[in-house]
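Lab notes, practical 5.
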Amino acid sequence: MRKGFDGLSAQVRNILLLDPFSGAAFLFRGKKGNRLKALVWDGSGLCLNAKRLERGKFVWPRAGEGALRLSPAQLAMLIEGLNWKQAIVHDAPATPTLA
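Output from the prediction step:
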């Protein structure tokens, strides 16, 4: 967890082959599993946020899975240290029809 803005954005470009300036959030977890960094472009600059869990570990995919897309609910669960894999993603609610 020693990398900062430049090191993490280089990993996004070179390893994930994605654009760190796309506006997507890129999350990185430490070896012990209790530290998390988020790299996000907000339109004017890169933001780097960090979180350390006092108990437990962040639920993380296996390294071979590469990049994943998470729903806002799954992201919130991951950041809180909850098992985001159990979140059920529903389609947008249907527009009610009047009879």
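Observations recorded by the TA: The beta strands are 25-29, 35-41, 46-52. The mean pLDDT is 85.
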